[in-house]
């Protein structure tokens, strides 16, 4: 007996009864529809039916696969990323109308709207998966769905070293940066592993310290006993009720944070973060979209303008508040830590520049001694990789 007819009958039954499609209710409904199947077959079929009713349908097995980081639907084509680039997946979704209904069901389950009047939506599924959906005619060959999966078990620093994301020589440097309470930004392109690295490093914070996270979408899950999270809220269907990161940063400052963290700096909240880090909140962190460390100053300038910070004031505040830049990059073999840089003043105007202290390809860089001095000034031992022989490292 095929699943679609059962789905139709079970859906009609729930519609007539007006009851919720709980796991137990779905099992009971499937048993009534099938009759002669054994318990194992009924449970397996009930899982499929529930996925079709309120879950991700044919996409559910991909979202449950721990190796999958992204699931992308272009019309009826499905692509997956398991960390080494996109590949076609042999998943049949039916026609565009079936994909549209799937998108609308997922978005509606999150309390959001997706229809001809509102043809795109951001949502977060109950398991933490991020969903973005766009319908035609905005999606010319759509519907388009983009799902970023949520990893239930966070990585440890040892895990990142073991799988090659962090070289063994760089691991002690990252641990020293956290121990010294240096403020840092994790930068890189989309999908480069910024959130993963930041969540891992927050797990190194001593258990005696309180971490307050401010996020646009709750993604950080550090292994730490004292973490509180504030999440931004989008406007409702009437266009009211939005709460942005700027307001949440100000609320976080009243919550006695030992470490203030912004999941992603993307707007005027950068001025509030810099202000907080310049008033005694050491060890703060955040992520920033930037293709290279050299792009970070320009990116911060653009965000500073949104927050009303003049260029000179922004550079001065960054140099006083932030010390380290961790650059991650996505490669054909996975996501890797590419470099560790230090904010340094440059030129007569003392504008900020990011100077490499360590690079994956070259080892210790021109700012290795500057980072070593920062660590020593805070009573933290200097890792061996920051002590290069004379003349080593790549010129600035």
Question: TL;DR?
Answer:
The protein is an alpha/beta fold. It folds into 3 domains: 1-54, no CATH class; 58-152, Beta-Lactamase; 157-386, Rossmann fold (3-Layer(aba) Sandwich), CATH 3.40.50.300.
Summarize the topology.
Blueprint: H1 3-17, H2 23-34, H3 39-53, H4 60-64, E1 70-74, E2 77-81, E3 86-88, H5 96-109, E4 120-124, E5 130-134, E6 144-148, H6 157-162, H7 171-179, E7 184-188, H8 194-202, E8 211-215, E9 227-231, H9 245-252, E10 259-262, H10 269-277, E11 285-289, H11 296-306, H12 311-321, E12 324-331, E13 334-346, E14 351-359, E15 363-364, H13 368-377
Parallel strand pairs: 7-11, 7-12, 8-9, 8-10, 10-11
Antiparallel strand pairs: 1-2, 1-6, 2-3, 4-5, 5-6, 12-13, 13-14, 14-15
Helix pairs in contact: 1-2, 1-3, 2-3, 9-10, 10-12
Global shape = globular
Q: Report the major sheet.
A: 9 strands, mixed
**Which consecutive residue ranges, at least 5 long each, have pLDDT under 50?**
392-396
The CATH superfamily title of the largest domain: P-loop containing nucleotide triphosphate hydrolases
Order the strands across the largest sheet as they lie in space.
Answer: 9-8-10-11-7-12-13-14-15
**What is the helix/strand order?**
HHHHEEEHEEEHHEHEEHEHEHHEEEEH
CATH architecture of the largest domain: 3-Layer(aba) Sandwich
User: Mean pLDDT, rounded to whole units?
Assistant: 84
CA gyration radius, whole angstroms: 24 Å
Proportion of residues in β-strands: 15-25%
CATH class of the largest domain: Alpha Beta
User: Structural class of the secondary structure composition?
Assistant: alpha/beta
């Amino acid at each position: 007996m095929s699943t679609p007819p059962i789905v139709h009958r079970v859906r009609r039954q729930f519609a007539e009864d007006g009851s919720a499609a709980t796991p137990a209710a779905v099992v009971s409904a499937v048993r009534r529809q099938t009759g002669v199947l054994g318990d194992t077959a009924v449970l397996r079929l009930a899982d499929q039916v529930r996925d079709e009713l309120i879950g991700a349908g044919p996409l559910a097995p991909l979202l449950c696969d721990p190796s999958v980081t992204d699931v992308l639907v272009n019309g009826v084509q499905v692509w997956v990323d398991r960390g080494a680039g996109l590949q076609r997946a042999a998943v049949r979704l039916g026609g565009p109308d079936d994909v549209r209904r799937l998108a609308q069901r997922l978005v509606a389950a999150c309390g959001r709207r997706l229809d001809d009047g509102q043809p795109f939506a951001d949502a977060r599924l109950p398991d933490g998966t991020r969903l973005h959906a766009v319908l035609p005619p905005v999606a010319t060959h759509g519907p388009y769905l983009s799902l970023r999966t949520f990893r239930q078990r966070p990585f440890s620093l040892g895990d990142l070293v073991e799988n090659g994301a962090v070289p063994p020589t760089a691991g002690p440097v990252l641990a020293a940066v956290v121990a010294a309470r240096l403020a840092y930004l994790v930068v890189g392109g989309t999908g480069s592993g910024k959130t993963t690295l930041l969540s891992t490093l927050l797990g190194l914070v001593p258990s005696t310290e309180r971490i307050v996270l401010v996020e646009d979408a709750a993604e950080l899950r550090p292994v730490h006993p004292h973490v509180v999270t504030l999440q931004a809220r989008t406007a409702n269907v009437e266009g009211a009720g939005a709460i942005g990161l700027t307001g949440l940063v100000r609320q976080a400052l009243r919550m006695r944070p030992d470490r203030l963290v912004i999941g992603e700096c993307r707007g005027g909240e950068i001025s509030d973060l810099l202000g907080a880090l310049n008033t005694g909140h050491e060890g703060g962190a955040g992520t920033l979209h930037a293709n290279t460390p050299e792009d970070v100053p320009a990116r911060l300038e653009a965000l500073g303008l949104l927050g009303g910070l003049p260029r000179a004031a922004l550079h001065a505040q960054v140099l006083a508040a932030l010390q380290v830049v961790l650059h991650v990059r996505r490669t054909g073999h996975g996501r890797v830590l590419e470099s560790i840089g230090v904010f340094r003043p440059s030129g007569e105007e003392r504008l900020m520049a990011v100077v490499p202290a360590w690079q994956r390809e070259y080892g210790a860089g021109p700012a290795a001694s500057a980072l070593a001095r920062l660590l020593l000034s805070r009573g933290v031992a200097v890792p061996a990789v920051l002590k290069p022989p004379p003349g080593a490292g790549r010129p600035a």
